[in-house]
């Protein structure tokens, strides 16, 4: 019999923390490799699975080991209301780079140019997963697999290709950069192979990304409003792509 706590300590530094029932549920649905999962209340966790995730109930039952509540809280930075936590293997960068580079593409790639807010980055990954984007690329210093980003993404990093690249390494495809000074998005058909770039919360698009952009597009916004939140901007743009011209999910 393996010891889940010993496994946890052995693996924690090289794996991704799945914080809470929903993150674990999503990660399993999208094929994550999960070597260890613990809960302080296995009965409650499996009851949640019966109610919300019967498709992964058996996988959860096989994975989840009950540990004392104090042990659970000692393993995670912030206890989650569902008292479930797991560690997942981070998918290889090579496999993501191959997915991002593959053409023809059936759904856009989202680029966050030097995002600063980890919660925003997580929300964007959740959006990209929900709308079937090919991937989310970040530029700059933030690791898009940072635990706070993974928490914000609700375990949906495993449903899309998430990587950090430089502006010079962005995937192929026409680059549409979103900026309040651009042409109105509503007049434009976004192609499936689009690369959709969004600027940083503080400074907007970097000069490097602006220089590489094929088109500058704006979201409808009345005068006197300066800008939208980053994740909101991604939502509006991906929705515009999906509503008009994408194949059904
Ligand atoms: C919070 S905004 C950045 C605001 C920043 N102070 C600036 O000067 O651009 C973050 C990003 O969301 C996108 N964005 C926000 N509002 C937008 C709008 N009305 N039209 C197009 N893009 C927008 C842009 O990509 C922008 O760089």
Automatic annotation (TrEMBL):
Signal sequence residues: none
Q: Does the keyword Repressor apply?
A: no
Limits of the tRNA/rRNA methyltransferase SpoU type domain: 109-239
Highest taxon listed in the record's lineage = Bacteria
Molecular function in Gene Ontology: methyltransferase activity
Q: Which InterPro entries match?
A: Alpha/beta_knot_MTases, rRNA_Methyltransferase, SpoU_MeTrfase, tRNA_m1G_MTases_N
UniProt KW keywords: Methyltransferase, Transferase
Q: Name one GO biological process term.
A: methylation
The record's annotation in PANTHER family points to:
RRNA METHYLTRANSFERASE 3, RRNA METHYLTRANSFERASE 3, MITOCHONDRIAL
Q: What is this protein called?
A: TrmH family RNA methyltransferase
Species assigned in the record:
Streptomyces dubilierae
